[in-house]
Each structure stands twice: as structure tokens, then as C-alpha cells.
Amino acid sequence: MKKKHIIIIGSGLAGYFCAQAIRAVDKDSVLTMLTEDPGDFYRKPTLSFAFGQGKDADDLILSTRQEMSHR
After folding, report:
1. Residues in CB range of 18: below 8 A, 6 or more apart
2. CA dihedral of 40, 69, 4, 1, whole degrees rounded to 10
């Protein structure tokens, strides 16, 4: 049987939660996530607070794209 290939556009919360939901019911399909940013996981809504505290996006990373891929 041929494996399904699922493409998720965007690496925000919705993209990663979508991938996790798919994996919960489908361990075999190939998942590909397309994103313009590096794909590291952080809560993008916190960016405005972080900038006010002198932080940048790298300071907010909770998991790298490699770590998220293994999850």
C-alpha cells in the first residue's frame, strides 16, 4: 500500500497541533511542513511581549524543528 503524503503549511501553533493530531491517529503517512521561518516551535503571540523586554524570537524557542520532528 502506498503511503499518504500530507503537507502542512505553516509552523505556528496550528501547524504543529495539526501534525500532532494527525500523528495520534496515523503513524505511517509522510508529513511535510512548509514554512518561511526556521520552523522552531515557540508561541508566536508572545513576540510582542518579548520585544518589549528586549528579547528576540530565538529567546522564545521552546523546541527546535529537529526536536519537534521527533515528537
Report:
1. 8
2. 170
Residue 45: count other Cβ atoms within 10 Å of its Cβ: 9
Residue 7 CB coordination number (10 Å): 9
Residue in 50, 15, 52, 49 with CA at minimum distance from that of residue 34: 15
Mean pLDDT by groups of 10 residues along the chain of 71 residues: 90 90 94 90 77 79 80 75
Which residues have C-beta within 8 Å of that of residue 63, sequence separation ≥ 6? 40, 41, 71
- Residue 8's pLDDT is what? 96
